[in-house]
Amino acid sequence: MFNPIKIIRSKKGLAFKLITSIFASIALIFLVIFLYNYDFSKSIVEKNLKMNAENLTRNSVSQIEKILYSIQKIPDNYAKIIENTDYSKETLEKILQQVVEINPEIYGAALAFEPNLFDKNEKYFMPYYFRKEGRLELLYLGSERYDYFTMDWYQIPKELKRPVWSEPYFDEGAGNTIMSTYSVPLYRDFNGQQQFIGILTADVSLDWLQKFVNSIKVNQTGYGFMISQNGTMVTHPTTKLIMNETIFSIAEAQNSTQLREIGRDMIRGKSSFAEIEYHNLTTGQLSWIAYAPITVNGWSIGIVFPVKEFMADVNTLSLRIFALALAGLIIILIVIIGISRSITSPLRSLSHASKKIAEGDFNVELPDIKTKDEMKELHDSFVYMQKKLAEYVVNLQETTSAREKIESELRIAREIQMGMIPHIFPPFPNLSEIDLFALLRPAKEVGGDLYDFFLIGEDKLCFAIGDVSGKGVPASLFMAVTRTLLRSVSTIDGSPSAVVSSLNKSLSYNNESSMFVTFFVGMLHLKTGELKFSNAGHNPPFMIRNNGKVEMFEITKSIPIGLFEEIKYTESVVHLQKGDKLFMYTDGVTEAENLDKVLYSTERLVSVLQKNITATTKQLIQCVDDDVALHVDKYAQSDDLTMMTIVFYG
Amino acid sequence: MKKELRYTILVISLIALSFASCKNSTFENTNDETPLTELTDTSSSNLRKVTFLPYWVINAQFAGFYAGKELGIFKKYGIDLNIIEFQPFYTSNELLRTGEADFAAIWLVNAIGVKASGIDIVNIAQFSSRSSLMLVTKKSSGINEIQDMNNKRLGVWQGFELQPMTLFKKFHLNVEHIPIGSTNNLFLHDGVDITAANWFDEYHSIINSGYNPDELNTFFFADYGLNFLEDGIYCLSTTLSKDPKLCADFVKATAESWTFAFNNPEKAIDIVVACAQKANIPVNRVHQRWMLDRYRDLYFASGKTTTELSVKDYMFAAKVMKESNLIQEIVPYEDFFKHYTNYSR
Lengths: 650, 345
Fold this sequence. Notes:
The structure holds two protein chains of two kinds.
Chain A: H1 4-9, H2 14-83, H3 89-101, E1 106-113, E2 126-132, E3 135-141, H4 152-160, E4 164-165, E5 169-171, E6 177-190, E7 193-205, H5 207-214, E8 217-218, E9 222-227, E10 233-235, H6 247-254, H7 257-267, E11 272-279, E12 286-294, E13 299-305, H8 307-358, H9 374-420, E14 434-441, E15 449-455, E16 460-468, H10 472-489, H11 496-508, E17 517-525, E18 530-536, E19 542-544, E20 550-552, E21 572-575, E22 581-585, H12 587-590, H13 602-611, H14 617-632, E23 641-648
Antiparallel strand pairs in A: 1-2, 1-7, 2-3, 4-6, 5-6, 6-7, 8-9, 9-10, 9-13, 11-12, 12-13, 14-23, 15-16, 16-17, 17-18, 18-21, 19-20, 19-22, 22-23
Helix pairs in contact in A: 2-3, 2-8, 6-7, 8-9, 9-10, 10-11
Chain B: H1 2-23, E1 48-53, H2 63-70, H3 73-76, E2 79-83, H4 92-98, E3 103-106, H5 108-116, E4 121-126, E5 133-138, E6 153-157, H6 162-170, E7 176-180, H7 185-188, E8 194-198, H8 202-207, E9 216-220, E10 232-236, H9 237-242, H10 244-263, H11 265-278, H12 285-299, H13 311-323, H14 333-336
Parallel strand pairs in B: 1-2, 1-3, 6-7, 6-8
Antiparallel strand pairs in B: 3-10, 4-10, 5-8, 5-9
Helix pairs in contact in B: 1-12, 2-10, 2-11, 5-13, 10-11, 11-12
């Protein structure tokens, strides 16, 4: 069954690697694209927002300033007129009346003179025209209770020697609106010197200003506000802040040094266009504040831009892109899992099948591959391998059984061969004249070496040692023939040379395989110790004398038997003393090789023989055998090895 | 170096003041939990009508009175309190003389002046224990030491020139006095170099007009040996002799009200703000909170918790006034201060 969890579960599996690496790469690419898109869109919106902020703020400032300029021009002009009048009470009252009457934007106007200036007997002179219920009224202010000389509207322009807009104030009489007073200092020429004489004021309702600033709406929750030169809130959508709070008291209440810094910049006539983030005072959301000074009166307008609202479209777009990307990723994940499965499922089946094949089940069913890709190629290779393996195994079985058969036959042949040579020692326990021991170790199952000994009559021991050319079965067969012939040709009055010649004749006849045998045959007279022997190309044996001297027999000049029918073989005679030993061997001893292809050598053999003068026959052969084994050192025996020792006791 | 040292001392003393005040926001000789049975019958018909005159508009500097009235603390003492809405042209002596005000809060030197003018008022409780009056300069003006004030212009309210005048005399400085109204605007517009300010009010207004404390230099008169005490409760001598219990009850109620206000500042400020808004007076909580906190510092300065006026404080202020020819004679201390506790039984 399709089980993605199972596929993913194996952390080292191909599917897991495919899924994690491909999926992670694609997810990363999606993320980078998503972030880039978000960042880019955000920067575009921010750029537009800043431009928008700058335009809106500048436009608002220029409109407000235009109006304020036009208003302040009225008192400015009238101040000039007043400075050049005759200063009669009537004239001043008339001018003042005119200021209010023909300028609807001016709520009231006052003229306030320095103490005792207008009338030496009167400290105060302050006519004030103002609107009341649609009519103009005149009041004379200035008294102990209304000591205007220290009032801001009077004192500040006087001290600063320039017209000044006052801080905003509430005026219930003027209809409960916020007002500001524009005060122009008046000067008169006294003996060539400009002397301050008083102040002309115009009270202006800021109703229009509040309406204008309140009309600034930015998106849904953005708004405009205005602060005076001291930071007092002049307009704000939250009306309870107006006149009660300064931007600094709000900052203190919010414990915001940032807002305080914004306020400080604002009252110092600085501008900033949407570069500062601050929480919207009404919604609490992070917003941008743009601000610019109203240079005419030193106030400052601020506009709050709800960034989140502007970013809403970007966020929606980003959210949708994110959703699409997520959906895409899910599809990709499913596809990757599908592909992984299409790869790993047959692989797993093939892996399973190969285990079965390894166990010998060549008929296991391979998965069915419908595609025509590399998987199909792999599958076909598996099918081919399965077929070839099956064939090979059948072939192998046949070969093995054949070989086993041969091996079995060879084993029997060995037994037969070994059975042909005497292998019971001591062979003649009743004979006190001699002792004899022999060893034959074929290099393969069967070998071409031979030895034999038997008594002819009562006091004649015939013995022989030989080595057939080649090894294995042919040599063994030739050896068997030689051994059989030896017994048949050895007669009571025969001599060793006659035996050898007879053997040669028989073996040479029809010897198409041109095999031959090196052969040494001896006949020892047990009573006399006379040894007659004939050597047909065999390694000369050693005579170990009873005095400890080791003598090698003469190297024969006769060729091995089995080659030429007509060859005549000679014989020699030697007398054995009591205690003399004969040591015979095949070249398997002296030519035994070690790993370095170094031969055992005749010299080494002689030295072993010399060291073991007193050894028994069996001990001597074992000593030589051990020494040869030491030399060969586990290197495979390459030739048949045969040794025979006879000791003559007389 | 000197500046920094002075600033550090100021900060440390302010912290010490605040700390002291934290420990002690209750006046002696007052009991928050006076059983009602011990008091005058509080049924509305038997309440004694009392008028009180503050010397300024509705602000947290009178939080004790407004909160006490609103929360019925005065009623608890059998007093139906009416707080006169302050008008700039009101003068304490006039209203006390005419009987329009039974009690008034007056600064010590002003009260000495009133008494010297022939109106027989007496101090029945001295709440303030430290002068809040200070001079403020902008560091940008280069006035960092008292000596730097020579030949500069000082904005000061009319009637409050005594402390600066005495200070400048002490340091032999020639400073031009510019009478100012109730705002700091002339100072903010650089129309004057130095301005007089109350720590609890104008100083904070300057801060809340965009000047950071580290941009200003402050000179507390109290730190220059001119600690003229401020708020005390005054009434006509006849009021005290006629109804000493009323006077005692009024002071007790006042002390308890202040204690409540200091211990429940938010609640007290709620009441003050509501009263101010009702009277159409611009008000903001931050400023009111500052004011109430500073009032706690000023009332309980140096750990003082009594409402007694010390002979030393009285004589010092009176002597300076006499030296400045503001008064001709020094009224004996016993005639000026008649602590309510002596008349409460």
